Amino acid sequence: MNTIKYSFKAAGIAAVTTLAMSTSAQALTLDTTFLQANSVFALSQDAMDAMGAASTSMSALGNATAANSSSTAFNLPVTKVDVSLGLPPFSPLVSPNWGDATGSALAITRGSRSVVLANFVIDYSKDLVLADITANGITTKNTSLYSFTATDLKIGLNGLTLNMHQQLSNLVFTDTALTSFTSGLNLSKALLTPLKTMDFGTITIDINGALRSPVNATPYTAAVPEAPPAAMLGLGLCGIAVVARRKMKA
Questions:
Q1: Cβ neighbours of residue 210 under 8 Å, at least 6 residues apart?
Q2: How far is the C-alpha of 92 from the C-alpha of 84, rounded, in Å?
Q3: What's the rounded Cα separation, in Å, for the pair 199 and 48?
Q4: In the predicted structure, residue 84 carries a pLDDT above the cut 60
Q5: How much is the pLDDT for 246?
Protein backbone atom coordinates (compact mmCIF):
# COMPACT_ATOMS: atom_id res chain seq x y z
CA MET A 1 0.00 0.00 0.00
CA ASN A 2 2.84 2.37 0.92
CA THR A 3 4.53 1.56 -2.39
CA ILE A 4 1.39 2.61 -4.30
CA LYS A 5 1.08 5.76 -2.19
CA TYR A 6 4.69 6.79 -2.86
CA SER A 7 4.27 6.00 -6.56
CA PHE A 8 1.29 8.35 -6.79
CA LYS A 9 3.25 11.03 -4.92
CA ALA A 10 6.24 10.70 -7.27
CA ALA A 11 3.94 10.84 -10.30
CA GLY A 12 2.32 14.02 -8.95
CA ILE A 13 5.70 15.70 -8.43
CA ALA A 14 6.76 14.72 -11.96
CA ALA A 15 3.53 16.15 -13.39
CA VAL A 16 3.96 19.47 -11.56
CA THR A 17 7.59 19.68 -12.70
CA THR A 18 6.60 19.00 -16.33
CA LEU A 19 3.88 21.68 -16.15
CA ALA A 20 6.29 24.23 -14.69
CA MET A 21 8.81 23.52 -17.45
CA SER A 22 6.18 23.80 -20.19
CA THR A 23 4.76 27.08 -18.87
CA SER A 24 8.07 28.82 -18.16
CA ALA A 25 9.19 31.46 -20.65
CA GLN A 26 11.86 30.53 -23.18
CA ALA A 27 14.33 33.12 -24.50
CA LEU A 28 14.80 33.74 -28.22
CA THR A 29 17.46 36.07 -29.63
CA LEU A 30 16.82 37.53 -33.09
CA ASP A 31 19.29 39.19 -35.45
CA THR A 32 17.57 42.28 -36.90
CA THR A 33 20.45 43.76 -38.88
CA PHE A 34 18.69 42.87 -42.17
CA LEU A 35 15.13 43.79 -41.06
CA GLN A 36 13.29 47.10 -40.77
CA ALA A 37 14.18 47.58 -37.11
CA ASN A 38 14.77 51.11 -35.94
CA SER A 39 14.68 53.21 -32.80
CA VAL A 40 14.34 56.99 -32.78
CA PHE A 41 15.80 58.97 -29.89
CA ALA A 42 14.01 62.33 -29.74
CA LEU A 43 15.14 65.08 -27.38
CA SER A 44 12.55 66.79 -25.21
CA GLN A 45 12.10 70.56 -25.33
CA ASP A 46 13.66 70.83 -21.85
CA ALA A 47 16.74 68.91 -23.04
CA MET A 48 17.07 71.13 -26.12
CA ASP A 49 16.78 74.26 -23.95
CA ALA A 50 19.40 72.95 -21.51
CA MET A 51 21.80 72.08 -24.34
CA GLY A 52 21.33 75.55 -25.81
CA ALA A 53 22.00 77.19 -22.43
CA ALA A 54 25.18 75.12 -22.04
CA SER A 55 26.30 75.79 -25.66
CA THR A 56 26.32 72.08 -26.49
CA SER A 57 25.33 70.23 -29.66
CA MET A 58 24.59 66.61 -30.57
CA SER A 59 25.65 64.74 -33.71
CA ALA A 60 25.35 61.20 -35.11
CA LEU A 61 28.29 58.80 -35.42
CA GLY A 62 28.67 55.20 -36.57
CA ASN A 63 25.49 53.82 -38.14
CA ALA A 64 23.29 56.44 -36.42
CA THR A 65 21.75 59.20 -38.55
CA ALA A 66 19.89 62.44 -37.89
CA ALA A 67 16.10 61.93 -38.10
CA ASN A 68 15.41 65.61 -38.78
CA SER A 69 17.23 68.68 -40.08
CA SER A 70 17.50 70.29 -36.65
CA SER A 71 19.42 67.32 -35.17
CA THR A 72 16.99 66.96 -32.28
CA ALA A 73 16.09 63.35 -33.13
CA PHE A 74 18.32 60.47 -34.25
CA ASN A 75 17.85 57.06 -35.88
CA LEU A 76 19.59 54.27 -33.95
CA PRO A 77 19.17 51.04 -35.98
CA VAL A 78 18.18 48.04 -33.84
CA THR A 79 20.65 45.21 -34.49
CA LYS A 80 19.50 42.47 -32.10
CA VAL A 81 16.46 41.71 -29.93
CA ASP A 82 15.97 39.12 -27.20
CA VAL A 83 12.40 38.10 -26.29
CA SER A 84 10.78 35.58 -23.97
CA LEU A 85 8.16 33.16 -25.31
CA GLY A 86 5.57 32.10 -22.78
CA LEU A 87 2.27 30.26 -22.54
CA PRO A 88 -0.70 32.39 -21.47
CA PRO A 89 -2.19 32.73 -18.91
CA PHE A 90 0.96 31.76 -16.99
CA SER A 91 3.15 34.30 -18.84
CA PRO A 92 2.81 36.66 -21.84
CA LEU A 93 3.05 34.99 -25.25
CA VAL A 94 5.92 37.34 -26.24
CA SER A 95 7.72 39.87 -24.03
CA PRO A 96 10.94 41.81 -24.66
CA ASN A 97 14.05 41.16 -22.53
CA TRP A 98 16.58 43.42 -24.19
CA GLY A 99 17.51 44.97 -27.50
CA ASP A 100 20.66 46.61 -28.77
CA ALA A 101 21.73 49.22 -31.30
CA THR A 102 25.33 48.17 -31.76
CA GLY A 103 27.36 50.50 -33.96
CA SER A 104 25.21 53.55 -33.19
CA ALA A 105 26.83 56.52 -31.47
CA LEU A 106 26.04 60.10 -30.50
CA ALA A 107 28.57 62.82 -29.75
CA ILE A 108 27.67 65.65 -27.37
CA THR A 109 30.09 68.51 -27.93
CA ARG A 110 30.80 71.67 -25.97
CA GLY A 111 33.65 73.73 -27.33
CA SER A 112 36.74 71.52 -27.41
CA ARG A 113 35.20 68.95 -25.03
CA SER A 114 32.93 66.05 -25.90
CA VAL A 115 31.16 62.99 -24.50
CA VAL A 116 30.40 60.04 -26.81
CA LEU A 117 27.58 57.55 -26.22
CA ALA A 118 27.81 54.32 -28.23
CA ASN A 119 26.44 50.78 -28.63
CA PHE A 120 23.11 51.28 -26.88
CA VAL A 121 21.24 48.51 -25.04
CA ILE A 122 17.67 48.57 -23.73
CA ASP A 123 17.46 46.40 -20.60
CA TYR A 124 13.78 45.74 -19.80
CA SER A 125 14.59 43.78 -16.65
CA LYS A 126 16.10 46.88 -15.04
CA ASP A 127 14.29 49.62 -17.02
CA LEU A 128 17.63 51.07 -18.07
CA VAL A 129 19.26 52.31 -21.25
CA LEU A 130 22.92 51.26 -21.26
CA ALA A 131 25.76 52.54 -23.44
CA ASP A 132 29.52 52.81 -23.75
CA ILE A 133 30.27 56.29 -22.37
CA THR A 134 33.51 58.00 -23.36
CA ALA A 135 34.42 61.10 -21.33
CA ASN A 136 37.77 62.69 -20.56
CA GLY A 137 39.44 60.18 -22.89
CA ILE A 138 38.19 57.17 -20.89
CA THR A 139 35.54 54.70 -22.12
CA THR A 140 33.28 52.92 -19.63
CA LYS A 141 31.55 50.06 -21.42
CA ASN A 142 27.94 48.95 -21.01
CA THR A 143 27.19 51.40 -18.23
CA SER A 144 23.82 52.80 -17.20
CA LEU A 145 22.77 55.95 -19.05
CA TYR A 146 19.03 56.58 -18.57
CA SER A 147 16.23 55.09 -16.55
CA PHE A 148 12.93 54.93 -18.45
CA THR A 149 9.22 54.20 -18.35
CA ALA A 150 8.04 51.68 -20.97
CA THR A 151 4.60 52.32 -22.49
CA ASP A 152 2.46 51.43 -25.50
CA LEU A 153 3.90 47.95 -26.13
CA LYS A 154 2.58 46.07 -29.15
CA ILE A 155 4.50 42.85 -29.86
CA GLY A 156 3.98 39.56 -31.65
CA LEU A 157 5.71 36.82 -33.64
CA ASN A 158 4.81 35.59 -37.11
CA GLY A 159 6.99 32.51 -37.37
CA LEU A 160 10.40 33.92 -36.46
CA THR A 161 9.47 37.42 -37.69
CA LEU A 162 9.11 39.90 -34.85
CA ASN A 163 6.65 42.77 -35.02
CA MET A 164 7.08 45.29 -32.25
CA HIS A 165 6.20 48.87 -31.36
CA GLN A 166 7.31 50.40 -28.08
CA GLN A 167 7.87 53.84 -26.64
CA LEU A 168 10.27 54.54 -23.78
CA SER A 169 9.58 57.84 -22.06
CA ASN A 170 10.78 59.80 -19.04
CA LEU A 171 14.46 59.29 -19.87
CA VAL A 172 16.36 60.45 -16.77
CA PHE A 173 20.13 60.39 -16.24
CA THR A 174 21.53 57.79 -13.87
CA ASP A 175 24.06 59.04 -11.31
CA THR A 176 26.88 57.41 -13.29
CA ALA A 177 25.91 59.16 -16.52
CA LEU A 178 25.41 62.51 -14.76
CA THR A 179 28.93 62.37 -13.36
CA SER A 180 30.39 61.54 -16.78
CA PHE A 181 28.52 64.38 -18.49
CA THR A 182 29.26 67.11 -15.98
CA SER A 183 32.95 66.16 -15.85
CA GLY A 184 33.41 65.42 -19.56
CA LEU A 185 31.73 68.64 -20.70
CA ASN A 186 33.00 70.72 -17.77
CA LEU A 187 29.49 71.86 -16.87
CA SER A 188 28.89 74.35 -14.08
CA LYS A 189 27.39 73.25 -10.76
CA ALA A 190 24.35 75.44 -11.54
CA LEU A 191 23.34 72.96 -14.26
CA LEU A 192 23.79 69.90 -12.05
CA THR A 193 20.50 70.22 -10.11
CA PRO A 194 18.13 70.48 -13.12
CA LEU A 195 19.99 67.70 -14.97
CA LYS A 196 19.33 65.25 -12.11
CA THR A 197 15.58 65.16 -12.77
CA MET A 198 15.36 66.32 -16.39
CA ASP A 199 13.33 64.22 -18.83
CA PHE A 200 15.60 63.96 -21.88
CA GLY A 201 12.90 62.73 -24.26
CA THR A 202 11.69 59.47 -25.78
CA ILE A 203 12.96 56.40 -27.61
CA THR A 204 10.44 54.94 -30.06
CA ILE A 205 11.13 51.39 -31.31
CA ASP A 206 9.54 49.96 -34.48
CA ILE A 207 10.35 46.50 -35.87
CA ASN A 208 8.66 44.57 -38.68
CA GLY A 209 9.43 41.78 -41.13
CA ALA A 210 10.33 43.98 -44.11
CA LEU A 211 13.88 43.65 -45.38
CA ARG A 212 16.51 46.40 -45.50
CA SER A 213 20.15 46.60 -46.50
CA PRO A 214 22.08 44.93 -43.67
CA VAL A 215 23.25 47.38 -41.01
CA ASN A 216 26.89 47.35 -39.96
CA ALA A 217 26.73 46.01 -36.39
CA THR A 218 30.43 46.42 -35.61
CA PRO A 219 30.69 48.04 -32.15
CA TYR A 220 31.53 51.72 -32.36
CA THR A 221 34.82 52.70 -30.72
CA ALA A 222 35.25 56.35 -29.80
CA ALA A 223 38.54 57.94 -30.76
CA VAL A 224 40.58 59.05 -27.76
CA PRO A 225 41.91 62.55 -28.45
CA GLU A 226 45.67 62.94 -28.44
CA ALA A 227 47.26 65.62 -26.31
CA PRO A 228 48.08 68.73 -28.40
CA PRO A 229 51.77 69.40 -29.18
CA ALA A 230 51.94 72.27 -26.69
CA ALA A 231 50.65 70.02 -23.91
CA MET A 232 53.11 67.27 -24.86
CA LEU A 233 55.95 69.82 -24.75
CA GLY A 234 54.81 70.97 -21.32
CA LEU A 235 54.76 67.39 -20.02
CA GLY A 236 58.24 66.84 -21.44
CA LEU A 237 59.62 69.94 -19.69
CA CYS A 238 58.00 68.85 -16.42
CA GLY A 239 59.65 65.45 -16.76
CA ILE A 240 63.05 67.03 -17.36
CA ALA A 241 62.60 69.28 -14.31
CA VAL A 242 61.72 66.29 -12.07
CA VAL A 243 64.79 64.34 -13.24
CA ALA A 244 67.05 67.36 -12.70
CA ARG A 245 65.80 67.85 -9.14
CA ARG A 246 66.41 64.20 -8.29
CA LYS A 247 69.97 64.46 -9.59
CA MET A 248 70.60 67.60 -7.53
CA LYS A 249 69.33 65.91 -4.34
CA ALA A 250 71.52 62.88 -5.05
A1: 35, 36
A2: 8
A3: 11
A4: yes
A5: 52
Tell which residue, 44, 195, 38, has the closest CA to residue 115.
195
By the 8 A CB rule, do 202 and 42 touch? yes
Find, among 36, 128, 31, the residue nearest to 77 by Cα.
36
Q: What's the pLDDT at 218?
A: 98
Beta-carbon contacts of 130 under 8 Å, excluding residues fewer than 6 positions away, are: 120, 121, 122, 123, 142, 143, 144, 145
Show Cβ contacts of residue 50 under 8 Å, excluding neighbours closer than 6 positions: 191, 194, 195, 198
DSSP letters of 171-236? EEE-HHHHHHHHHHTT--HHHHHHHHH---EEEEEEEEEEE-PPP--PPP-PPPPPPPHHHHHHHH
- The pLDDT-based confidence of 6 (bands split at 50, 70, 90) is very low
Domain boundaries, the chain: 26-224
For residue 187, count other CB atoms closer than 10 A to its CB.
18
Q: How many residues belong to the chain?
A: 250
- The pTM of this model reads 0.80
Q: Do 153 and 165 form a contact (C-beta atoms < 8 A)?
A: yes
- CA 153/CA 19 separation, integer angstroms: 28
Least confident stretch, 34-48, 60-74, 86-100: 86-100
Q: What type of residue sits at position 198?
A: M
